[in-house]
Amino acid sequence: MRPTPRRLAGLSSSGWTFVLVAAALGAIEWYARSGAVSRLDLIPVSEMATRAVEMLGEPDFVVGALLRSVLLILVSFAASAVLGVAVAYAMARRRWVHRAVKPYVNVFYALPVFALYPVMVVIFGTGVVPIILLSTLFSVVIVISHALVGFESTPPIVTKLARSLEMSRTQQLRKILMPSALPDILVGLKPGLAYAIVAVLATEFILATTGLGQVVSRAYNNFNRVDMYAGIVFVSAFALLANLALGAALRAFDSKIRGKRGTAWVPPLFFAAAMVVVWTVTAALADSAVYPGPGQALDSLWSDLGNPRFMTSVSDSARVLLLSYAAVVVVGAVAGLLLGLSAFWSRAVLPLVYALNSVPKIVLYPISGPRGRQPHAAASDVRDRRAMRARARHPPAVLRCTGPA
After folding, report:
1. Structural domain boundaries in the chain
2. How far, in Å, CA of 72 to CA of 82, rounded?
3. 3-class DSSP state for residue 107?
4. What is the value of pTM for the model shown?
5. What pLDDT, on the 0 to 100 scale, is given for residue 258?
6. 13-261+336-360 sits in which CATH class?
């Protein structure tokens, strides 16, 4: 088997990463200036970068939006890293904790955590606390999954040897479990950072009144294309630089370490019952109109099941979900196969994949949203013009001029 080349055409894998980024930016610049697309839909990258540099000179943007979002991302990422490793350690040490928590870890992948924002606002009020909690919940799951794989991969004979040597649990964690699980934990931190970036910026885009995501949302609503694309430039640049920096830090840390060298359904039902009890108590303490209890939620769901419009929406969402999942499976399998054939190109392209995964897709909606609505808007304009011409030809009787009596 041939060893992976360190350089290709004189460039390392990191150099090729920046070459791919430069090629993509150059293609967007050419496409925007070619006249094939309206300036209302896409502006050249040079204008995006110019406006982004100008925004760096605005103290309100730097302090109130950029630094605020960066701090929220860092706090959420740190909280998810610590909490994820702690929960994974508890799951690995106690089998009943594993059986109780594992189903919810699996379900949390499909749970839209942004739907919990109204509940967070009722409990904690508006501000940064709900955003941090949502971002932590969104990113902690992937850390738990990878850390759990690392802790459970420790050979049982090693833990038995540690007990025979009368090592305390702290010593076992520090000298055996953590070194064994560290590679998997480091792997989980990369997508954990991506999820934290997505959660913070997407929450700001939809719900917050300040922050980098809100800058993009406000510019989009005000039809300010230049500021909108400048905000997207900041989001993309931060996602790419953050993933590259984290990858470099994890590689340096890993190289330093290497160089230095019962029944399964009872616990989940118990925790589900406890969550229902907590829900009922908090709903009883809050206003039922703002925070309904389980009974009200079930009644509303039952009435919605008999609503044809609701069931049509459910079927449409299920259809889109299945098509999206099929596309993800096909594209992901083909891309993974191609990248797996070359370790060099894998190292060059994976930072871009992580960066793309870190960009909240909702902030890219303004790029596709206006073009997606143009046919409908054009059809609406045609109908309006036809109606105006019809009214001009046949005005209502009360408005017709009948002349002097």
Report:
1. 13-261+336-360
2. 16
3. helix
4. 0.62
5. 55
6. mainly alpha
